[in-house]
Amino acid sequence: MQISVDPAAIAEIIQEVAEAEILPRYQSLTDDEIMQKKGGEVVTIADEESERALAKKLTALLPGSVVLGEEGFAKDPTLMAALNGDAPVWIIDPIDGTKNFAAGKWPFVVIVALSLKGETVMGWIYDPVEKRLGMAEQGSGAAFNGAPAKIAAPKEFEDMSGFCAQTLISGELQPLLFDIRNACRTMSHPHCFGHEYLELIQGHADFSVIGRLFPWDHAAGVLMFSEAGGIADMITGEGYRPEILKGLMILATNHESWQQLKRFFP
C-alpha cells in the first residue's frame, strides 16, 4: 500500500492541536481535570481531548487509517492488534510526560508516528512550550526545526551523557544501571521519552537505555534517531519495531558505543 502524506501537514495538525487543547491547560488544570488510569498512571483532560482531536484530524487526512493512542489503549487494549493489520496506523501519545504536565512542569511533548504493517514510516515529536519539532521519514532522514538532525560525535564513554528511566527497568538490572551511571559523565531521566529523543537528535546526548517499550513512546523517536545516523536496537541485536513490547533497547550514536553499553549486561 502506498501512503501519500505530507509530513509538514501532519506537523501543522500537531501544532494546532497543541495550541488548542494542551497549552491553554498548562499550569491551569483543576483537580477534577487530573485523573488516574488503571495501574495508577496520571491522565488529564488535555491528554484525552488532544488524542481525540488528533485522531479525528489524522484519520480524515488519510482515509482508511486507524488509531492506536495511549489513552484509547488504556480503555481498550485490543487496539494494539492494529499494528499487525493492513491499515496504516497512527500511533499517538497526546502528551508524553503527563506527570510533568499535570504538575505544571516541563518537559512534555506530543508524539505521533505512522506505521504500516508493523514498520514505522514517519514520525513527529513536538515540544509546544519551546516550539521544538523533530520529524523523520523512512529513508529520507530526520530534521529538527527544519534543519537536518545531527547526533553527537563519538567520544570516550567517561565523557558520554545519556538517559535511563531506571525505575522502569526490572529490579535485577538495577545494579548494572548504577555501573553505567558511575562509568559515564551523566545519566538522567526527565520523565519524558520524547524530550530525550529531541535531545539525542540535537547532539545534546549520546545514549539511552530503555526498558519500557510502549509504541507511542518510541516509534517516532527511534525512527528519528536512526534516520539521523544513530543505532537503536534491542539488546539481542534485533532491530526495534513498534510491536515489540518487552525487552531492553539501547540507543547509541555509533556501533562501538552501542557495544560498550551492551557489555554492562550479561
User: How many beta strands in the DSSP annotation?
Assistant: 14
The backbone outline, from C-alpha atoms, is globular
* Spatial order of strands in the largest sheet: 3-4-5-6-7-8-9
Helix/sheet category: alpha+beta
Instruction: Provide the CATH superfamily of the largest domain.
Output: Fructose-1,6-Bisphosphatase, subunit A, domain 1
Beta-strand portion reads: 15-25%
Q: What is the mean predicted local confidence, pLDDT?
A: 96
H and E order: HEEHEHEHEEEEEEHEHEHEEH
Q: Gap between N and C termini, in Å?
A: 41 Å
| Tally of individual domains | 2
Individual helix count: 8
Q: Mind describing the biggest β-sheet?
A: 7 strands, mixed
Task: Report the CATH architecture of the largest domain.
Answer: 2-Layer Sandwich
Proportion of helical residues: 25-40%
Q: Return Rg in Å.
A: 18 Å
Main traits of this protein?
2 domains; alpha+beta; 266 residues; Fructose-1,6-Bisphosphatase, Chain A, domain 1; D-Maltodextrin-Binding Protein, domain 2; seven-stranded mixed sheet
